[in-house]
Amino acid sequence: MIQLYPDEKLAEIPSQNLPVILVVTRNSYLTEAAMTYSLNVAGRLNHRLLVAYINTMPFLWDAGSRSRRFALAVDDSVVLLRKCSQKKGVVVSHVKESGNPGRVVSRLCRIMKKIEFIIVDNGVRVEVVVSRSPVPVFNVDNFARM
Fold first, then answer.
1. Which of 13, 85, 98, 122 is the most buried (most CB within 10 A)?
2. Distance CA 118, CA 133 (A)
3. How far from 52 is each of 61, 62, 117, CA to CA, in Å?
4. 23 by DSSP, 3-state: which?
5. d(Cα 98, Cα 28) in Å, to the nearest integer?
6. Can you tell me the distance from the alpha carbon of 138 to that of 37, in angstroms, rounded to the nearest whole number?
7. Which of 103, 121, 102, 98 is nearest to 21 (CA)?
8. End-to-end CA gap in the chain
9. Which has more pLDDT, 6 or 95?
């Protein structure tokens, strides 16, 4: 099940017609490079962001402590993301997913018809996302080195 968490203060802006930039991270937080780059691009292109936090090891036997820590860390990351997005005037939503990043991207692209392109954070293998994506994929690691 996919749960979208829109930013409450920016939800008043008619953002349903805006194209979407999907940002994918397998960590429970976005790197500073991914956050800065995606917010800048979304602001310049007048797009909204959908950030997918993917737990790649959801079935690791630890009585659910890893999943709880993942959820808490995502919530902390979203607070920082919302603060930065409000400064830039960008509408941001996020989803917490688990499993293979390629399959998650494929499913999100089928559900969200307005995804223009995907930004992949460090830690996600670009080849896995590209093989399942119907839209262009960009790796933040390449931009951070320039």
1. 85
2. 8
3. 23, 23, 13
4. strand
5. 11
6. 11
7. 121
8. 38
9. 95
Question: For residue 43, is pLDDT > 90?
Answer: yes
CATH class, range 20-144 = alpha beta
Under the phi-then-psi rule, with left for phi > 0, alpha for psi from -120 to 50, and beta for the rest, what region is 121?
A: beta
Give start and end residues of each alpha helix (H) in the chain.
Answer: 32-45, 65-88, 101-111, 126-132, 140-144
Strand 137-139 and strand 115-120: the pairing is parallel
Query: Whole-model pTM?
Result: 0.82
pLDDT at 95: 93
User: Using CA atoms, how far apart are residues 36 and 85, in angstroms rounded to an integer?
Assistant: 9
For residues 40 and 32, the answer to whether their CB atoms sit within 8 Å is no
For residue 102, pLDDT beyond 80: yes
**Structure-block tokens of residue 115:** 């995804």
C-alpha–C-alpha distance, residues 71 and 76, integer Å: 9
